[in-house]
Design goal:
- By secondary structure, the chain is of the alpha/beta class.
- The chain has 3 domains: 152 residues, Rossmann fold; 46 residues; 34 residues, no CATH class.
- The strands form 2 sheets. Strands 3-2-1-6-7-8 form a 6-stranded parallel β-sheet, with helices on both faces. Strands 4-5 form a two-stranded antiparallel sheet.
- It starts with a helix and ends with a helix.
Amino acid sequence: MNLNYLEETIRTSKYLVCLAGMEFMREQNVAYHRDSDESYRIEEKYGYSPEELFSARMFNTHAELFYEYYKNEILSKHLEAGKGNEALAKLEEAGYLKTIITKGIYNMPQKAGCKNVINIYGNIYENNACPRCGKIFPIEYIKNNDKVPLCDVCKSTVIHPGVYLHGEMLSNTVISHAVEEVAKADTILVLGMNLNSSLCKDMLPHFTGKDLIVIHKEAHYLDEKATAAYHEAVSEILPKVMGSILEK
């Protein structure tokens, strides 16, 4: 696979933005709840689908079951950043990469050292807050609580995790920030998803730059809309390209 075009595009870009998708997360062994096997396992165990469990309705009406699922299936994961995110961190440090936009909630790019990351769906580490008084709690407070984590100020108020739940409104501030970054970009890398993914459909209408490059293991009919498409794992391609760029 000839990576010269990708390498040259990254090197000459004035404002490079990455959209990081679910397939990129799967490369770091993150199970996606919409995968058929994972979805079946969860429904068998809890009696509800992952979408029902990870929802504002479940949080508001069955907090014990919500937090049983959240702590067992979400907070219990021990994930490494992975080679792809480490490559992104080095590209950012070298001044090539400006922003990463993702719906991931595990702070994988941040674990690798990336600084400019927009988490559309929030993340599990920050903004675990009391809906009443606004006090913020660390993730350890939730993990170490045997029952439903309650605010230690308000006493009876259930702490809301710092992530988007199905049925909630996304933060206008976060969305606006992401749109602004996409609008400034002259190059966008779409990593681990196709152009029909929800993140691409939300963000790319605001892109007026020159180069749109897809890195995704599976070919897709919308690849023809991209400047270039590479059908290989992100964690295989990016380290090669990053190494070549930084050597020159």
